[in-house]
Each structure stands twice: as structure tokens, then as C-alpha cells.
């Protein structure tokens, strides 16, 4: 799931604003000699005029592709199974109970399909109506200021960033749809990122920020509620399960890791890594588990303690078994002695 405006250029194709922007760039390159020497306003006006001519627009050929990139470096070709544009786009009209016609706006949500199995997934909350003001939220996304930072390696560009905040309001967008206001930091690149509550369930997704002029104003950002996502999934013919073998291994491994059971946590993370290798979080936990496990004293290691408990249990079972056999043997001997004495006892005694 992501925002509609994230895939909007792909959906609109040659008819969209992004295609027009690409055409203007092509005109700028192709007509560099003619444009050279013109002042900036006149150059921009001339480029727009050239790009708007029918001959140039008819010559526009646009190749489209859509990919989903995961943090382990794998990229998947994607299909759009459901699309609703941003809230400022009017997608139709409807008539209310009084007979008045009303514009229907987009909901800024898209459902994409990629082909693979047992991928990492998240649990979706059933509803967001139980949220309250001041409740803690966690936003996961890929803010552009981090992804394109000149001092950061490109090798980590697909590792997400987490920002935290709280529910600060409940509003409606211009189409009358519910949105959740938060003071968690959200910026270009966070779009469509999941927003979690303190139970680890997704209650919505980042959708738009606030501007004052051209300046982004932080602390006044908005989320699509989970109900919008669930409705989009239904229209796409999808029933979100929030479960996979990878996710089960990861969740159990994290639980063991938090409880300082590093040996078993390492085994869970290793099993998850065999299903889908290369996820940075999995590798990070595995490495830390390995280090902490080796730092433990030999007798304090889980596998040694399990071995000791196993031998102790085996010894108890063996003791009970042999003890039981000796008791049965002694009982049999006693019975035989009593029977022998009764047989050998003279009659009348």
C-alpha cells in the first residue's frame, strides 16, 4: 500500500504534469542553441511554448515502469490493483439525501501487487476510531532529505527512518474524508509510510504535510486512517493477513532478543534470513546476538544450560525407571516368599 500521489505520474502517463515536465526538459536540451542568450523568464516562456505545440506533443514517447524496492536491495516490478488520486482531485459527483450534487474527491491511496512469497508484512489495526488525543505514534518512511543526503552512503538509502509523535487532532479533508493529525515529523519521501500505534499495529499512513507559502511547517501533518486502507484493499480484491513465515520468525526472534535469549534469537533470525536474505534489521540483530552470546560465560550460555537441564531430566527419568524396576522386582520377590511360605506351612497351622 502507498499513497495515490506516489504512483500518480505512472497512472497519468503522457497526460500528466510529470510527462509535461519531462517534455520541457527535452526541449531545453534539444533547443539549447536557440535558447542560449535569452534571459531566464523569456527562456522559460519559450520552452513552455515549444513544449505546448502539437507537433512536439505528438512526438512525445513515454516509457513507464513501476517498481517496489525493499531494504534488502531487491526490486520488484509492480502492478497497480487499486488507485485513488490525491484529495485535491475531483473523481466524480454524487447526490446527497436532499438532492444536491456534491463533488467526490480522491482518497490518496494505491494498492500495488508484487510477486513473491513469505515477505515481511505488518499487522493492520481493525479501526482507528479508538485513538485518543496524545496517543503515541511511530512513522516509518524514507524522507528525501535522508535518502539524498550528500554525506550519507547510497548503500543505506533503502533503510527506513522512524519518527515519533502523538495524535494531535481529528480532521476531514476537502472531500469530507477522515484524516488524523499528528505532530510526528513527515516530509517528502514519507508519503505512504505506515504509522504504528504503541501495540505495533498500523493505524494509518502518512499522506500530506502543511505549508506556509513554500515552506513546510512541521508538527502539523496528516494521516490516512486504516479504514481507508482496508476499503482500498477490499476494492482491490485483497484480504490483508499480516502474517508470513518470515514475519513469525522475526517477531519471535525479537521477543527472544528482548528477553536476552540470544542463542535462540540468533537461530530465528538466521531462519528468517534464509527465506529472504539481506534485510539490514535482521543482520543487525543476528550480529548483536552473536556478539552477546559469545560474551557470556560458558556455563551461562543457553545451549549449555539446556544441555544440563536435558541431562538432569534424563537422569531423573532414568532414576525413576530403574527405581521403579527395583521396586517391582522387590515386590515380586516378597510375593514369591509369602507364597512359598504358605505352600510349605503344614496343614492345620
The order of strands across the largest sheet is: 7-8-9-12-11-10
CATH topology group of the largest domain: Thrombin, subunit H
Instruction: Quote the beta fraction.
Output: 15-25%
SSE order, one letter for each helix or strand: HHHHHEEEEEEEHEEEEEHHHHH
The residue fraction in helices comes out at 40-55%
What does this structure look like?
Strands 7-8-9-12-11-10 form a six-stranded antiparallel beta barrel. Strands 1-2 form a two-stranded antiparallel ribbon. It folds into four domains: 4-58, no CATH class; 115-235, Thrombin, subunit H (Beta Barrel), CATH 2.40.10.10; 245-296; 307-349. The protein is an alpha+beta fold. 42% of the residues lie in helices and 22% in strands. The longest helix has 43 residues, at 302-344.
In short, what is this structure?
The protein has about 350 residues and is an alpha+beta fold. The protein contains eleven helices and twelve strands.
Key structural traits:
single chain, 12 strands, six-stranded antiparallel β-barrel, Thrombin, subunit H, alpha+beta, 22% strand, 349 residues, two-stranded antiparallel sheet
